[in-house]
Amino acid sequence: MSQPGPIALSCGEPAGIGPEIAVKAWQALRDSCPFFWIGDARHLPAGTPVTEIASPAAAAAACADSFPVLPLTFGGGTAKGTADPDNAAGVIESIETAVQLVRSGKASAVCTAPIHKKALIDGAGFAYPGHTEFLAALAGRERVVMMLASDQLRVVPATIHIALSDVPAALTPELLRETIGITAAGLRDQFGIASPRIAVAGLNPHAGEGGAMGREELDWINALIVQMQGEGLNVTGPHPADTMFHAAARARYDAAVCMYHDQALIPIKTLDFDRGVNVTLGLPFIRTSPDHGTAFDIAGTGQANPSSLIQALKLAQTMAAGT
Question: Which residues take part in binding a divalent metal cation (predicted)?
Fold first, then answer.
């Protein structure tokens, strides 16, 4: 297995916990997982030993003894707990720089710290619903897929941030086919699973129970899965969601494709709340992120748990080594 290059970590919202957990992650990993932080060092915790680097190539050597920073100059302040819109342009530049460096081969993967969308809208007219959509636009991809991954479970929601009442209309055969296909390709290309096993959850309780609790499974979900099986994909379902996530069931698949946000996120957050990682599949580069937000209420207090970011960096390194 080849040794991957350093990981580019975008700074995220500087008034949140991103800078603090970045330094805690470096303290835990040091040179075992080289990465560099892209941002304004004024936002880092006081006393952090910083080495400003001119290029990613210098990150690995710096990591053993100091926190490597690829410096940007932000226009706003350094207060914690409340986002300063004057920092918005810098936050966006940090993400853009990370993507440019990984696409040019100077970094092996992008890891992103949490952003605050309202601050980006207020300060820089940010035109995207979130990180994932912005990264897709930077990569020129119309459709990408969000995976939440841990050592115990990988889940992919086909529909994400919409009301539950809107799910049946949004969940089309085309959307589910694309989601399953991108998931299978990501498991092969980025996770190194030659023949990925994908379990698809039903939309309705008991996967519709023969039409007694909903007809989507009978009307088209069953047929789509059979069709994709005929195309060579190792996909099964639709399975009742309430029996998909116990240990014996999880052993039978590499990822679960779920129909809506909570159907996917409740089991992984229950099984491994602090160590879940957000992975974007369908991009032409590796992108991971901790599975939490900016946590303004504890920013700057030293209480932030870096576990999810540590796992995001380690997973990015493992994925990069296998590609």
Answer: 161, 206, 261
- Known binding residues for substrate are 131-132, 269, 278, 287
By three-state DSSP, how is residue 317 classified?
A: helix
What per-residue confidence (pLDDT) applies to 1?
42
d(CA 198, CA 178): 13
> Is the model's pTM score more than 0.85?
yes
- For 175, residues 6+ apart whose C-beta sits below 8 A from its C-beta are 158, 159
Average pLDDT over residues 309-323: 92
- Longest CA–CA span in the chain (Å) reads 63
pLDDT value of position 323: 60
- Per residue in 223-269, pLDDT tens? 999 999 999 999 999 999 999 999 999 999 999 999 999 999 999 99
For 152-271, the fitting CATH number among 3.80.10.10, 2.60.120.10, 3.40.190.290, 3.40.718.10 is: 3.40.718.10
The CATH number that domain 1-144+282-323 falls under is 3.40.718.10
Q: What is the pLDDT of residue 161?
A: 85
- For the record, the structure tokens of 261 come out as 């946000």
Identify the pLDDT of residue 3. Answer: 66
Q: Where are the alpha helices (DSSP H) in the chain?
A: 18-29, 59-63, 88-103, 117-124, 131-139, 167-170, 173-189, 216, 222-230, 247-250, 261-271, 307-321
Angle subtended at Cα 316 by Cα 312 and Cα 320, rounded to the nearest 5 degrees: 175
What tokens were used for 36? 């560099």
Decide: 241 and 267 in contact? Cβ < 8 Å. no
Show binding-site residues: 131-132, 161, 206, 261, 269, 278, 287
| Domain residue spans of the chain | 1-144+282-323, 152-271
4-15 average pLDDT score: 95
For residue 76, the model assigns a pLDDT of 97
- CB contact at 8 A, 299 and 80: yes
Please state, in angstroms and rounded to a whole number, the distance separating the CA atoms of residues 239 and 256: 10
| Residue stretches of the annotated binding site for a divalent metal cation | 161, 206, 261
